[in-house]
Amino acid sequence: MRLEHKYLFAAVIMLFIFTGMMLAQSNPTIKDIKVEAFDGYIRVSWEVYSEAGVDHYEVRRSSGTSVPLYIGRTECGVKYYDDKNIGFYKTEDQYFSYQVRVIGTNQSLQSNSEIKGIRYSSPSNTYKSTWGSIKAMFR
Q1: Quick one: which of 11, 28, 43, 79 has the fewest CB in 10 Å?
Q2: Which residue, among 31, 27, 74, has the nearest Cα to 55 in the 3D structure?
Q3: Over the stretch 3-59, which tens digit does the pLDDT of each residue have?
Q4: Cβ-based burial of 111 (10 A; exposed 0-12, middle 13-18, buried ≥19)
Q5: Alpha carbon distance 81, 45 (integer Å)
Q6: Which contiguous run of DSSP H or E holds residue 18?
C-alpha cells in the first residue's frame, strides 16, 4: 500500500470515529434518575445530557413483579413527575419501581433510563376504602 493511501485510510477511519462520537453525544440519554417518597406521592426526577431532539418524557411504573406501565408524561424541559395515584394500592407497605423514556420529536423512543425503585408506606391517616369498610358504614 502506498503512503498516501495509508493517510487517506487513516483519515476515513478518524472521520467515522468522530461522526460516531458526535451522534452519541446528540442522542438524548438520561444521566441520572432519582425516586423520592413524600406524604401522599412519589416524585421521580431525572437529569439528561442533552435535550436536543426531545419531544417529551414518558414515566412508567411497576409494582412488585409487574411490567412497567405508562402512568404519565412531561414535556421537554420538565424533568420530574409526581406520582399521586399510589393511594389506590391497598397494602400499607408497597415497593414501586420507575423508568423514564425519552421520546424524540419524531415520536420514536430515543432511550430508556435505568429502573429505580422505592418502598412506599401510605400515610397512616389515609382512609382505605375496602369492601368491608364500605359495608360497615351502612350498619
Answers
A1: 11
A2: 74
A3: 566 666 666 676 666 555 444 445 678 889 999 999 889 999 999 988 999 999 999
A4: middle
A5: 6
A6: helix 3-26
Select the CATH number that applies to the domain covering 28-124 from these four: 2.60.40.10, 2.30.30.240, 3.40.50.300, 1.20.1250.20: 2.60.40.10
Rounded distance, CA 86 to CA 97, Å? 12
Please provide the average confidence, as pLDDT, over all residues in the chain.
79
CB-neighbour burial class of residue 36 (10 A; exposed 0-12, middle 13-18, buried 19+): exposed
Mean pLDDT of 64-77: 89
pLDDT of residue 3: 55
Predicted TM-score of the model (pTM): 0.67
